[in-house]
Amino acid sequence: MALDGFCLSNIIYELKNTILGGRVDKIYQPEKDEIIMQIRNKGNAYKLLLTANASSPRLNFTNIQKENPINAPLFCMVLRKHLSSGKIVNITQPNFERIVNIEVESINELGDYSIKTLIFEIMGKHSNIILIDDKNNILESIKHISFDKSSVREVLPGRQYILPPSQDKKSPLETNYNEFLNIIKNAIPTKTQQIIYKSYNGISPILASEICNNGAIDPSKNTSELTDDEINNLYKAFNNIVLLNNNTHFNPQIVYNENNTVLDFTVFDFNIFKHLEKKYFSSISELLEFFYKSKDLTYRLNQKSQDLKKLITQNIERCAKKKEMQQKTLKDIEDRDTLKLYGELITANIYAIKKGMTKVTLNNFYSENFEEIEIRLDSNLTPAENAQKYFKKYNKEKRTFVALQDQIKQNNEELLYLESVLNSVNSCTDEQDIKEIRTELAEQGFLKRQKNNKNNKQKSNKKSKPLHYISTDGFHIYVGKNNTQNDELTLRFAKPLDIWFHTKDIAGSHVIVVADGKEIPNSTLNEAANLAAFYSKASNSSLVPVDYTPKKFVKKPNGAKPGMVIYETNKTAYITPNEELINAMEKID
What are the angstrom distances between the C-alpha of 260 and each of 257, 286, 577, 585? Predict the structure, then answer.
């Protein structure tokens, strides 16, 4: 069930019963497309989240703590100016649209009371949060929409606020049997389910299917084939949903598939889901907080790491092209010893060669078979000059080969390092992880260093923590989420007899099993190897080679990049990552 009109109706019901009559205490804007309002009412404090991001636009009470920017964005400043200390006097849902109007009474610049309305439009990627005055003028919006972005309407400060296009849908709360019958009878023949959600505001396709099911109608049945009795049954089912809403008989719940994955959420008991597992919540806010927590975090992390991924990918491609050129150069100079041989054979037979010859056939006295070799000559050069030409070319290619060895080593190390950083970005679980990766890339010269003021330095002192698991045998297992953590775990945290894991020649996390003076059983070793394979570039592969060894055999060479180590006397396990095995382990937050 999408965040449709009925779900929104449940949210408004909750808001009215908690914050109506309350006062706006604080306003924050932790993200570019979301705000948090702290509201006090009857001795209680509530944090109301309004997020207009394209992935999961919604509003609900929240307990999640977010870091706020040092300097508040313009929209946040405007909200503070007009709404701070204001009293919430009304909360409405116009025409049962996916729109919420929060009316706030506050004192204006002239000292008079006036009403400002915070409008939240929930429209997928077009979602927006808009503040208007009592004359319907837009004071500010979290997203500015000009006519070059939308030909339908402008959303800019100073413009008149206009509702989004209505698509001529009806409000289900205001319909009656005659109107419902008229819609069905006069509709262009289409599926019954479609005519319901396309004719009425606030009805999602899944709710339309539930209405059809409750009216004993096949959702795919054409409206032209419906009998009067079927239309009557359909209307009763439709009206029952409206009555549930009007009587506030909400029952927020998440529905799970047979494989225990989240299927959907609803605010009513659906008969089409009666055979499935459900998780019930005491409020719609609790449901939305639970449902969107991981989804929202993933969206935010992707948003904040896109530039990093692009930068790292570009550098990986650069290293790959350089490697290709290096291999081509190696191929071109692989016969360099033959050049030396030609020079030596010409020198040994210099008196048998005349100037002006274009080639000569000589016996190779370095070979056991003493075979003949044909050597090309420059007719304009003397025999000695031809020999020197071959020696000169040989020495040049030899120097190129020697230089290439260091270049290839450096390029391969850089490529492996960048792949490890990209894997770290994909393994981030919070924003601090991304900040640490930015710092690491800046220290390695891939990013410009950001100037830190005092507040930034204080924030930068915070460190993210590695992932922490408990094996089924009770052993503590730690997984580094970036190279900073990998070095910390391996070089400073781990004891000599703790067991270190890492995918063989594949970018991935360092994994440490804390031995604590005990012998580690094979089941724990297998779980740790699974973690190393799962948190690596090869997480979707099978039979991933994972090396493991006591930490005392792991060393970091001088000058090595973060996360880069060498080791010896290791064993190798071949692991197909098993996510179910990992999920069954206890995870410490």
Answer: 5, 20, 20, 17
**3-class DSSP state of 550:** strand
Evaluate whether residue 146 is within a structural domain. no
Residue 80 has pLDDT above 90, yes or no: yes
Query: How many whole angstroms from its chain centre is CA 333?
Result: 45
Strands 138-141 and 128-132: antiparallel
Name the DSSP class of 222.
B
- Partners of 503 in the β-ladder: 546
Domain assignment of residue 161, yes or no: no
Name 563's Cβ contacts closer than 8 Å, sequence gap at least 6: 417, 420, 480, 482, 483, 486, 487, 510
Residue 116: closest CA among 132, 92, 135, 129? 132
pLDDT tens digits for 420-455?
999 999 888 888 888 889 998 998 888 887 665 555
Rounded CA gap, 462 and 478, in Å?
19
Contact yes or no for 46/19 (Cβ under 8 A): yes
Report the alpha-carbon distance of residue 488 to residue 480 in Å, rounded. Answer: 8
Length of the chain: 589
Q: Does residue 446 sit in the same domain as residue 484?
A: no
| Best CA proximity match to 50, nearest among 67, 28, 70 | 28
534 three-state secondary structure: helix
In a domain, 363, yes or no: yes
Token pair listed for 512: 């440490």
Annotate 277-338 with three-state secondary structure.
EEEECCCHHHHHHHHHHHHHHHHHHHHHHHHHHHHHHHHHHHHHHHHHHHHHHHHHCCCHHH
356 and 455 in a single domain? The answer is yes
Portion of the chain with pLDDT greater than 90, in percent: 77
CA distances (Å), 19 to each of 108, 127, 182, 551, in order? 22, 23, 40, 56
Q: How far is CA 288 from CA 33, 181, 280, 431, in A?
A: 18, 35, 12, 21
Say whether both 330 and 374 belong to one domain. Answer: yes
**Whole-angstrom distance, CA of residue 197 vs CA of residue 4:** 10
- Round to whole Å and give the CA distance between 399 and 342: 18
Do 530 and 574 form a contact (C-beta atoms < 8 A)? no
d(CA 507, CA 542): 15
Question: CB under 8 Å to 6, separation ≥6 — which residues?
Answer: 202, 203, 207, 241, 245, 267, 268
Q: Where are the beta strands (DSSP E) in 433-498?
A: 467-470, 476-479
SS3 of 371, please? coil
Q: What is the CATH number of the domain that holds 195?
A: 1.10.8.50
CA distance 202 to 2: 10
What's this model's pTM, rounded to 2 decimal places?
0.72
User: 314-373, pLDDT tens digit by residue?
Assistant: 999 999 999 999 999 999 999 999 999 999 999 999 999 999 999 999 999 888 888 999
Bridge partners of residue 118, in order along the sequence = 102, 131
Query: What's the pLDDT tens digit per position in 148-157?
Result: 887 789 999 9
